[in-house]
Amino acid sequence: MKPMDAEQLREYGHQMVDFIADYYKNIENFPVLSQVQPGYLRQLLPDSAPTHPESLQDVLDDVQAKILPGVTHWQSPEFFAYFPSNSSVAGFLGEMLSASINMVGFSWISSPAATELEMIVLDWLAKALKLPDEFLSTGQGGGVIQGTASEAVLVVLLAARDKVLRRVGKDAIGKLVAYISDQTHSSLQKACKIGGIHPENIRVLKTNSSTQFALSPEPLSEAISQDIASGLIPFFLCATVGTTSSTAVDPLFALGKISKSNGVWFHVDAAYAGSACICPEFRHYIDGVEEADSFNMNAHKWFLTNFDCSALWVKDRSALIQSLSTNPEYLKNKASQENLVVDYKDWQIPLGRRFRSLKLWMVLRLYGLEKLQAYIRNHIELATKFEELVRLDSRFEVAAARKFSLVCFYLLPPKSNEEIGDKLNHDLLDAVNSTGKLFISHTVLSNRYVLRFAVGAPLTEERHVLAAWETLQEKASDLLMNL
Ligand SMILES: Cc1ncc(COP(=O)(O)O)c(C=O)c1O
């Protein structure tokens, strides 16, 4: 067997690229949301692995016939659920290159280019976002690519925890308090769980529609004062720019000031909306990021970089390293011992790491910042268009102020029967998603079940948005007529 024969790679690679190109060409023909039932695949595949080799064509036939029906097509132009998870030719080629080189860049010596390119590309992106210089790798800080925003928040939470515990002693872990809002992504709760933060010491501060679901500085200040008075130790605040439910933006500057004056680590989660901040007109959403200790955005969401690529920057890399470094004999080397290099294994949970900077580098180089800005603007314009359509139909209501490319909306129940509002919207969601023509998701805002329409798939054009709205209107008419 020759598992990595260059000529076979060339032949199969061409065949695979053709298959993938055809997939993208025909992607609109698939139902966006997979319509299969749980367990469908077990009935279609054999019980055990083949003893003898099969042909690539046989495998691709199975992908077409058995796998693709069970795929929800995130790259479909009619995918409007959750937040987008972009792919692009540049991102795809970067992934391909990364898979080809297939090195494991845990420390600088294990593949110097992987570490150095990651540092450079994250400096580029930091500059495009106009992050403060302290986040650049040329100072005490720097950027690192994590797999997901969840890993990013976990590692900074661990760094913040250990920084405080070094000062107050390990036994005080039960006194550490983290602050979030009721709109903060659930990954923060998970990070607290893993980090040993007492569940009772997670302050989930309430937001409401009067602040457009943003966290107000006053309740934070009050909660911190109360906790200090009770002998507890505030240590971590997570603010969000572009919350998952409704893309609310927390006031970074005011929250950051409170954090700083109380010695609290301030993390900014801009997983989705961070990408928009490369546009000068949207950069103001992260004003105040200069107060943050760490900042995160997912290039794999809305920045054309294939999953996974979550960019995290910290101002003080030593805090991360002190928390996460290990130094086993088998990894010792001159460059690391002499402190000449960055070893990214000490900035993340796993040891092994992929050459992910290649795809971000490809995206930045093959598109350039101007085109990337235009890409973001186009989605925001399409979302604005959708929002206008919702407003023009008196049966609907826009349920939260739109800032980026997400529109939250609500089908109003009849005045005489308002209590069926949640069910009506739930039914509308099911009705449109089961058509296979589009896929949207939902959230709950101010105790109401509302629908989310997130524009952001790379292939989405105005005609897709208009068609989606037509389907929504049609299904809404059916539901209202049958009440
Ligand atoms: C605001 C926000 N933070 C964090 C996350 C988690 O992202 P990941 O899947 O990269 O962990 C999401 C996911 O949508 C998000 O919207």
From TrEMBL:
In Pfam terms, one family for this protein is Pyridoxal_deC
What is the required cofactor set for this protein? pyridoxal 5'-phosphate
Q: Which PROSITE patterns match?
A: DDC_GAD_HDC_YDC (PS00392)
Q: What is this protein called?
A: Tyrosine decarboxylase
Please list the residues that carry the modification N6-(pyridoxal phosphate)lysine: K301
**Keywords, in A-Z order:** Decarboxylase, Lyase, Pyridoxal phosphate
Does the record bear Cytoplasm in its keywords? no
Could you tell me which InterPro entries the record lists for this protein? Answer: Aromatic_deC (IPR010977), PyrdxlP-dep_de-COase (IPR002129), PyrdxlP-dep_Trfase (IPR015424), PyrdxlP-dep_Trfase_major (IPR015421), PyrdxlP-dep_Trfase_small (IPR015422), Pyridoxal-P_BS (IPR021115)
GO MF, one term, reads: L-tryptophan decarboxylase activity
State the species of origin: Penstemon smallii
Mitochondrion recorded as keyword: no
The family assignment reads: Belongs to the group II decarboxylase family.
